[in-house]
Structure formats: structure tokens, C-alpha cells
Amino acid sequence: MVTKVRVDQDKCIGAGHCVRAAMEVFDQREEDGIVVLLMDEVPPDLVAKVRKAEALCPAQAIRIEVTD
Amino acid sequence: MPDASPPRAPAAPLFPFQRTSPFDPPPQYAAARAAGAVCAVTLWNGKRAWLVTRHEDIRRVLSDDVRFTSRMADPDFPAITPARVSVDRNERAFVGMDNPAHDAYRRMFTREFSYKRLQALTPQIRAIVDRLLDDIEAKGPPADFIPEFAIKFPSLVMSALFGSPYEDHEFIIRCAAARHGLTQSVEDAEAKGRELAAYVRRLIDAKEAVPGDDMVSRIIEEHVKPGRLSRDDFAEIGAMILRAGHDTTANMIGMGVLLQMQNPPLRDELRANPALIESFVEELLRYVSPVQFSPRRVAREDVEIGGVTIPKGEGLFMLLASANRDEARFAKPDELDPHRDASHHLAFGYGIHQCLGQMLARFELAIAFERILERLPALRLAVPLEQIRFKHDMQIYGLHNLPVTW
Fold it and tell me: What's the average model confidence in pLDDT over B31-47?
């Protein structure tokens, strides 16, 4: 099972919840605070943190996809 | 023809309601959550507005920029006082805009509030807290913790971050109070709004002449000089940032310190286990929810919420304090419990307008509580609770005074 995370930079408002929840996976662009992904495949030990980031994102800019 | 008119709905109650306990929202909120998805109320001007009271419904409305507008200049925008009508009509910052304009402006400022940037400021924030606690200890008990700490602390942080001289903080707080009150005159609210924007406009000129290591200087360099942001627009946005940065954090610190003093087992636990402070801050934000009558929206079309149709052009209040006490989302919602995961609270709002300064507020609150717990372990009220003046007269809830001893 592979967990992939996607972000929508057009929706992002730079609130920073994702970085706070999962600093290993998300960062904010230096120039405008918009989300960038540090990885797109999430290792199992980070899945819970990434799910929290997805749940807290106020702009609903984070999507998680689980494939077999 | 009276016979042909539809059955008349019971008169919508006058809003806002009164609190019956200083630590809980008005009891009508829980009743409204139980009764239905939305609740019609009458405002001071006789206009009807709708209260959205449930966590899920508020999240849905605040995520829906298609059917609801945030444009404060909209003539139908619901206002809690006559002064607020004028404040709303004069709002030029992105808090009162829809997309795409909102995001275009907000993105010029988001890097200033990015998580890692604020995290890097924590030693500076801690040093400010310790300096203020040094002063309080040197003067000796008793002290009024609101003017001596709760107001000075975020003012000093904003001064360092934004670049506004610290000696101006009392002026900035007076301007914020003129906007956030429930009883001020239209003239006072308008005048203080203009004065604060003019103050930031002068600050922009001063920083343009002599730049510093601060937000105003950086925004001038990155956005004003290349022509993306006018000096007047920057002044309005800067006024919004100053008001929010000075007023809301001060209120949360006052309420947080009072609640800890009222609850010795909680205070002892936080002191023994500082790792719990981060989740305590989330829980405190949930429990206090200081922003009482925002966010607001106007329906752009007829919208159904939970079986009730909100007609096009009518206003809605998102009652964040109600969402944060919603039994459907938080077990035992009226208990202050630092062990719960309260991170999905809506104290900062939700959607594209969620608070720009929220991460700064989180760092400020956590650092302040951690240092106060360590340095003033015997802190207690110097007067009976009845002598604490709660901000029943303000749109942002908190304390006017907090006499303490140790």
C-alpha cells in the first residue's frame, strides 16, 4: 500500500498547519509562504501526521491518495 | 390581504445575547445548536440575520466562496453595531475581499507569518517575556497583569516584527478598541480607523527613507517598490495587522492566566509537564474563542443550510465560540481539558480568511504561559473573582483587569 500526498498551490493560503503537523513532508516557499512538498510518497510512520495536515488545512489544499 | 400571507414565524430574538457565566458563551448558543442548523435573529437596525452555530456548518460556509461573499462593503453585510457598519464600508484590507483579490494581497504577507520564520523568532519572544517578568518581579506584588504583561508583551513582539515603535502601542490599542467595541460612536470608530491607517502610512514613509530589519521595510522592498502594492493599500493592511496583533493575543493571555489561577491542579500539571502547554494552548483557544461576532458572510443566492433556506442577500454570523462548544465535535465541550486534541477548533476561523497571525499567536501564548508558570509559581488573584471586569462591552472577549499577587 502506497500513500501519496498532493498539494494545490493555487488554493494554499500559507496558514502553515501542514508544516506544523509534518515538517518532514511539507515546507513553505521562501518567497510567499505557499506550500511545497518535500516528498510525494509518504512513509508509513508519517501517514498519521500527513492526515492531520490534510484535516487541518483551512483551504483544503492537501489530498491524500492511497493505492495498492 | 392578511388571509393570504404565510404563517408568521415567531419574532427572531435580538442579537447579541448576554453571557450568564464569564467563561461560557451565551446559553442561547447551545439551545440554537440543539434546535436546528441555523437560527434567525434581529439586529439593532431591525434587519434579520442568521446565526450559524454548528462546527460542521460553519466549516462548510467558510469553505464556500461561491455562494457566500466576504465583501465587507456589501450593503447587506451584517453588522453588530452602527459603528461597525461604517468600519465595514471603509475596510480596504483583504479581510473584506473575495478572491481573486484576497489571495493576491494575502500572499504578499504570508511569508512574514510562515511557521519556520516564526519558530526562528522564539528566542526573541522568550527574551521579551523574561524582561517583562523581571520588571514585574522587581516592582513586587500586587500587579495588574493586563497592563503590566498581557498588553505590553504582544505589543513588544509586534514592535520587533512589524517595525512600529513600541512607544506607540497605547495609541494602536486605543485604535483597536475603537473598532472592537460594542458601544463606541460611529465618529470615534471612523476617526480611529483613519488615524491608524495614517499612522502606518507615515511609518511606511519613514521606513522607505531609513529601512530596518522589520516587516514594513521588507514589504516595501519586495512589493511596494516593484509596484505590486500601493503605499495606501499597504497602510490599510498594516493597520489590520497591528490591530489584530495587539488586541487578540493580549485577551487570550489574560483569560489563560486567569483560568490557570482558578484551576490549581491544571496549573500544577502544566508546570510539571511543559510538553502539555502546546495542546493546552489549542484547548484554551477552543474554550475561550475570543472573536465573538466574526466571521460574517452574505448569501449570494438562496442557500439551504440544514433544511432552512437563507435568502439571497441576507447576512450570516459564524459563531466560532458555538462551533468550539459543539457536542457533536467535542466530548464534554464545556470542560477545559489540556489532554484532548482540540486542534480542529475554529477559534481562528476557517477557509481562505483564516487568521493570518495564528501561528504567531500560538508561539506567543505557549512561550508566555511556560515562562509565567516557571517564574511566578505562586501567582494568584489579588481580588475576588467578582472584581474582575470581563469584556462584555467588546467584540473580542477578554479581561479589562487582572489584579494578581504572588
Answer: 95
Non-local (6+) Cβ contacts of B1 within 8 A are none
**CB spacing of B107 vs A56 below 8 angstroms:** no
CB contact under 8 A, B115 and A56: no
Q: Is B218 exposed, middle or buried (0-12, 13-18, 19+ CB in 10 A)?
A: middle
Q: How many CB atoms lie within 10 A of CB B149?
A: 25
Tally of domains within chain A: 1
* Interface probe, candidates A20, A27, A51, chain B, greatest B C-beta count within 10 A: A20
Interface test with A, best of B115, B345, B362 (most A CBs within 10 A): B115
pLDDT tens digits along B320-348? 999 999 999 999 999 999 999 999 999 99
CA distance B388 to B406: 17
Dihedral sign of CA atoms B159, B164, B168, B174 in order = negative
Domains of chain B from N-terminus onward:
2-405 (1.10.630.10)
Residue of A nearest to B348 (CA): A58
- pLDDT of B314 strictly over 50: yes
State the DSSP string of B261-292.
HH-HHHHHHHHH-GGGHHHHHHHHHHHH--B-
User: For the whole prediction, is pTM greater than 0.90?
Assistant: yes
- Name the residue among B62, B116, B354 with its Cβ closest to that of A15: B354
A12-to-A33, A52, A62, B353 alpha-carbon distances in Å: 9, 16, 9, 11
Q: What letter does residue B52 receive in the DSSP assignment?
A: E
Task: Tell me the pLDDT tens digit for each residue of B64-99.
Answer: 999 999 999 999 999 999 999 999 999 999 999 999
Bridge partners of residue B404, in order along the sequence: B143, B381
Structural domain of A63: 2-67
Question: Would you state the pLDDT for residue B1?
Answer: 46
How far is residue B176's CA from residue B172's CA, in Å, rounded to a whole number? 6
Would you state the cell numbers that stand for residue B37, as one nine-digit string? 442548523
Shortest Cα distance, chain B CAs vs residue A55, angstroms:
8
- Residue A43 sits in a domain whose CATH number is 3.30.70.20
Look at residue B3 and tell me whether its pLDDT is greater than 90.
no
Q: Which residue has the cell 486542534?
A: B343
